[in-house]
């Protein structure tokens, strides 16, 4: 059941600032995510032959 004295126009006016804040936060979050992706793509590099991946040093037991 809904309230009998609902005034939709008044509710639209009362909810406008919070909805604008939520939309602003969503836009800000999207821009920040886009910025992180662009930053990661610009600073990434292809591994070169000099890149050491998975090298492990083993200690030879002395006899």
Give me the count of strands.
Answer: 0
One letter per element, helices H and strands E, the order comes to: H
Number of contiguous helices = 1
Largest sheet: none
In helices, the fraction of residues equals 55-70%
> What low-confidence regions span 5 or more consecutive residues with pLDDT below 50?
none
Radius of gyration, whole Å: 28 Å
Explain how this protein is built:
The chain is mostly helical and 63 residues long. It is built from 1 helix and no strands. The mean pLDDT is 84.
Structure summarized in a few sentences:
The model has no long low-confidence stretch (mean pLDDT 84).
How is the secondary structure organized here?
Layout: H1 8-43
Keywords:
63 residues; mainly alpha; 1 helix; 57% helix
């Amino acid at each position: 059941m809904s309230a009998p004295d609902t005034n939709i126009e008044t509710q639209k006016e009362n909810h406008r600032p919070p909805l604008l804040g939520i939309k602003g936060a969503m836009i800000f979050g999207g821009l920040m995510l886009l910025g992180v992706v662009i930053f990661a793509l610009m600073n990434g590099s292809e591994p070169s032959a000099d890149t050491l991946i998975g090298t492990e040093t083993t200690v030879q037991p002395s006899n």
